[in-house]
Amino acid sequence: MKLVSWNVNGLRACVNKGFNDYFKAIDADIFCIQETKLQEGQINLDQMKEYHQYWNYAEKKGYSGTAVFTKIKPLSVRYGLEADQEPEGRIITLEFESFYLVNVYTPNAKRDLSRLDYRMEWEERFLGYLQELDKLKPVVTCGDLNVAHQEIDIKNAKSNHNNSGFTPQERGKMTQLLESGFVDSFRYLYPDREDVYSWWSYMPKVRERNVGWRIDYFLVSSRLASSIIDAQIDCHIMGSDHCPVILELEDQLTQGA
């Protein structure tokens, strides 16, 4: 079973930069995207007819938004953390027979950290949400979590301490999430692999020099760790300031799904 997650930073723009070719070539069972930056009816993806499509649009035009394309029809779909859909379109949860899939685009604390307090409150609610799901079935959560967890996950750790995405508060919430019963699939398999990132600034030569951050993840309930076959980061794929991340799980996980 192959799952892919990609912050496309505007799906319409990404489609013009090779998204469809990558989507077809990777042939994922489930493909999650973040930052769709569009509203219903603004894009036609009829070429994905073999996939069930689920969209969570932000109320603000050209902002945020998530989507999931899945070959496996879910038992149920939920949008947002609470019963009512959240206005920024950040979460889609699909329930399958054997697990929950949560596609998430975590709020950015902003460069001046003006949204850090909101981010901390959001993180608390998100952790509680995953824990409640995990009581029912194992959880696979993926997306742009907007945090480089450890120094190994960022090129210039020393100069970025206290910057948005690498503050002690944000990193602490990531630690708390993992310690509550979840596994970072990439670090589970490759605990010491360096210089592998999923996001690069658009500043000149930054991506060419691989001055990046690993802020896109696949996390799984700890009891699914033994089902992980591989976790990869497709650093060579362009089209966005992020690149796709991939998780391969044993097929038996989807039996009956």
Automatic annotation (TrEMBL):
The residues covered by the Endonuclease/exonuclease/phosphatase domain are 4-242
Under the heading PROSITE patterns, the entry gives:
AP_NUCLEASE_F1_1, AP_NUCLEASE_F1_3, AP_NUCLEASE_F1_4
Gene3D superfamilies recorded: Endonuclease/exonuclease/phosphatase
| SUPFAM superfamilies cross-referenced by the UniProt entry | DNase I-like
Q: Which domain of life is it from?
A: Bacteria
Cofactor dependence: Mg(2+); Mn(2+)
UniProt xrefs under InterPro entries: AP_endonuc_1, AP_endonuclease_F1_BS, AP_endonuclease_F1_CS, Endo/exonu/phosph_ase_sf, Endo/exonuclease/phosphatase
Q: Name one Pfam family in it.
A: Exo_endo_phos
**Keywords carried by this UniProt record:** Hydrolase, Magnesium, Metal-binding
Hey, which family's this protein in?
A: Belongs to the DNA repair enzymes AP/ExoA family.
Q: Report the protein name in the record.
A: Exodeoxyribonuclease III
Name the species this protein comes from.
Paenibacillus segetis
